[in-house]
Give the backbone structure.
Amino acid sequence: MKKGLNQAAALPEEWTRREQFERTKQAGFEGIELNLMSELTPEEMEEMKSLSKEFELPVLGLMSGLHWQYHLTSNDAENRKRAQEIVKELILAAKELGADTILVVPGVVDENVTYLEAYDNALGAMLELKPFIEEMKINVGIENVWNKFLTTAFEMRDFIDKIDSPYVGSYFDAGNVMINSYPEYWVEILGKRIKKVHIKDFMPTSGGGGYYSFVDLGAGEVNWRRLMEALKKVGYDDYITCEVGYHKICPQTSIHQMSKTLDEILAL
């Protein structure tokens, strides 16, 4: 397996793109995952390609925070259409940058969108996107997030299977499932459907108005040995990407620590 770093969580926004690539490489990561909040201009695209080549740091995947604003689950047709356009934009950018996977947050279930509506809307939107996805041959990984949607491994598995495409699978987040399950159990059920993996650690808490917190790798309750055994058992051999927040005072030090801890996790 290879070591990846998520730009949105682990790298300060004030760093230039060059600094982000250079310091990710210096810390020992083998790939970088980019968060695109808008389409890249031709100049930005060339800069990204040049930096990736210069630092020998592949773009392992793309995501967009815009999918928390525009939802494939939405009852509003225009909102849903924009969410589909974002998927297409990410796929085109991935193709250009040499990435093989994009991450998709399908949307949310809330007071305005029932679970049944969300499921039908998201499934319909993905089926409409399926011909484009397969034409472009870029993996679409649907991430399990705290959106009250696809909250169990069985639901995620069956949703993916209904789309029925070799290019549509799971972008599995091991830390996110700790709120109500265990990551190794999800891996067992999702199996070959897993396209990419995010990791962060999780610690239940009490008091202070909160019930949980994401913490540094190794400081929480994820059973890393069992997770790695499960991933190896299903034949996963791609990127393990740290989606871990950096330390505000010493971001570069914290990135190096993430890398060292990930080395130990991968050695389990």
The mean pLDDT is 95.
